[in-house]
């Protein structure tokens, strides 16, 4: 089953907050027929300050942990879920390269998933070109969301 079908069967929606992928996750999902039933929208927070201004990540979190961190990924996911009134918020932040950023290596990516049951983060260590890293991050985020959606019952509630 694809992600759009899984979300539709459960009457769930999703929104994305994207940094290194700059809208690629939302665009990829939108390529699937029926996406308009489940895709609420998204935020492109490529600049660090926009993670706070648009997604509501607290400035102290950004200062303390930096934009490439599980704490910021979690805040981005929670923020976009709230701003876009979605059942799921998914965030992607990381380093696409070609140079390391603030001590983080090229290919370090954090994905945040915020849903009714709380928020989770996932760390990826990817390699390749900027495009390779961005596409692999999107693929991982969409697969990760599908796994989490499939763990909910058809009414959209998390299974115990």
UniProtKB/TrEMBL annotation:
<dbReference type="InterPro" id="IPR008136">
    <property type="entry name" value="CinA_C"/>
</dbReference>
<protein>
    <submittedName>
        <fullName>Competence-damage inducible protein</fullName>
    </submittedName>
</protein>
<feature type="domain" description="CinA C-terminal">
    <location>
        <begin position="3"/>
        <end position="147"/>
    </location>
</feature>
<dbReference type="InterPro" id="IPR036653">
    <property type="entry name" value="CinA-like_C"/>
</dbReference>
<dbReference type="Pfam" id="PF02464">
    <property type="entry name" value="CinA"/>
</dbReference>
